[in-house]
Design a protein that fits this description.
By secondary structure, the chain is an alpha+beta fold. The protein has one domain. The chain has two helices and three strands. Strands 1-2-3 form a three-stranded antiparallel β-sheet, covered by helices on one side. A hairpin with a 4-residue loop joins strand 1 and strand 2. The protein is rod-shaped. The chain starts with a helix and ends in a 9-residue tail after the last strand. The mean pLDDT is about 85.
Length: about 130
């Protein structure tokens, strides 16, 4: 085998190794997309909670029986689910593609906003401060 051919084979092997290492460390592109969509859902739900908190904490008005959030799921286009539980407590629900990783060490999702994969509802008290989603 010639030196040029050996260098070419070595270069291809290095590129393959780098691609494999990238997939192992960060996952396939579909996982990155699912993570980005779930982060968007958390931001949306956090925005809805902040709006409800701003509108109904200081005014002492009871939470509305029906509320249609402006924010919509980035995939289905459907509004997030809101359900009044009491005059001061409500649920916000969304559908997540992935669970919050058990070993989450970054600052992207405070513990209140952790969730499993699939439909999940957060029980929120409008008189209590909700942690920011980011």
């Amino acid at each position: 085998m010639t030196a040029a051919r050996l260098i070419g084979v070595a270069a291809v092997a290095i590129v393959v190794a780098v691609v494999v290492a990238a997939f192992v460390s960060i996952g396939p592109p579909s996982r990155a997309r699912a993570e980005a969509l779930d982060r968007q859902r958390l931001r949306d739900l956090g925005d809805v909670a902040a709006q409800l908190h701003d509108d109904f904490t200081d005014t002492r008005k009871p939470l509305p029986a029906v509320y249609q959030p402006r924010q919509r799921d980035p995939v289905s286009g459907r509004p997030y689910e809101y359900r009044r539980l009491t005059s001061e407590r409500y649920q916000l629900c969304g559908r997540f593609e992935l669970p919050t990783p058990a070993s989450r060490n970054d600052m992207t999702a405070p513990s209140f906003w952790h969730h499993p994969a699939g439909r999940y509802c957060y029980n929120i008290d409008v008189s209590a401060r909700v942690e920011s989603t980011l």
